[in-house]
């Protein structure tokens, strides 16, 4: 490899790293919001696991980017899923066992949070992977290297954002608005009607993202208000112990029938005298 090829590869690598970091601001917000209801130690594990899984998914999506982008209504369905994720993450509150995926099992919470991160990142990366595919020009290993280098920065950025959300809970509202806006923008760029929007209704390119952000905010606030106004449920009572089986009653032993009384025979001597 000559110096020209090496310089070209280095420039491409820097482009991948820079583009991925610029486009990963939304993804860092998803990671931070998905982990904010977890204990700090578990949140760190979920961030690392989710970021690594998200990068792997980006590599796979970039490999088939040209096929995915042309599928009609794919972005619309993805936008709907992102809206659902955004509402759930915005309405979640620390210590709320109902919204913590996995119940009281910390390990289940970690895996569930990582799965939410991977799913949301894959949805939000549908547009990003097109730019990455154009930069790499089919060089798979260069793409893998560039995305792998962005993992530490994505992890640290997500951890810092998670600390901010923990210290300033009001930022969760802005995170939900950001995800809702992204979902609306994703729907507006769907291959099924993006050309029609550009020609006939260009205002929808702004209205749909705004509608997505407003819907996420309203729905999340409604869920929180309903939960707080509902009476607190009593703590779950432990299941009663199963009583030991009663011993079966033995049938009563039948008594022997009494012997019939023998008739006394009166003898002449025993007969009363007249």
TrEMBL record:
Span list, region Disordered: 228-274
UniProt GO cellular component terms: membrane
Annotated compartments: Membrane
Entry membrane topology: Multi-pass membrane protein
Bias kind Pro residues: ranges: 232-259
Entries under Pfam families matching the protein: TerC
UniProt xrefs under InterPro entries: Integral_membrane_TerC, Integral_membrane_YjbE
First-listed, main subcellular location of the protein, grouped into a coarse class: membrane
Stretches that traverse the bilayer: 46-65, 71-89, 110-134, 140-164, 201-224
Alphabetical keyword list: Membrane, Transmembrane, Transmembrane helix
Family statement drawn from the similarity comment of this UniProt entry: Belongs to the TerC family.
Protein name: Tellurium resistance protein TerC
């Amino acid at each position: 490899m000559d110096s020209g090829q090496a310089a070209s590869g280095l420039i491409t690598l820097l482009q991948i790293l820079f583009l991925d970091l610029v486009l990963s601001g939304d993804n860092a917000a998803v990671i931070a919001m998905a982990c904010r209801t977890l204990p700090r130690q578990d949140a760190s594990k979920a961030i690392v696991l989710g970021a690594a899984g998200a990068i792997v998914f980006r590599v796979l999506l970039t490999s088939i980017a040209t096929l995915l982008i042309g599928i009609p209504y794919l972005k619309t369905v993805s936008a709907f899923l992102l809206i659902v994720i955004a509402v759930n993450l915005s309405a979640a509150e620390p210590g709320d066992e109902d919204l913590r995926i996995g119940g009281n099992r910390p390990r289940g919470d970690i895996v569930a949070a990582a799965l939410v991160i991977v799913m949301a990142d894959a949805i939000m990366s549908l547009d990003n992977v097109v730019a990455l595919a154009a930069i790499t020009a089919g060089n798979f290993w260069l793409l893998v290297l560039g995305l792998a280098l962005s993992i530490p920065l994505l992890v640290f950025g997500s951890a810092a954002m998670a600390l901010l959300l923990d210290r300033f809970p009001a930022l969760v509202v802005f995170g939900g608005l950001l995800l809702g806006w992204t979902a609306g923008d994703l729907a507006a760029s769907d291959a099924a009607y993006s050309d029609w929007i550009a020609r006939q209704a260009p205002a929808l390119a702004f209205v749909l993202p705004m509608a997505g952000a407003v819907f996420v905010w309203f729905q999340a606030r409604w869920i929180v208000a309903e939960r707080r106004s509902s009476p607190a449920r009593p703590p779950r009572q432990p299941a009663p112990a199963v009583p030991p089986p009663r011993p079966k009653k033995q049938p009563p032993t039948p008594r022997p029938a009494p012997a019939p009384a023998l008739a006394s025979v009166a003898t002449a001597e025993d007969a009363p005298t007249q």
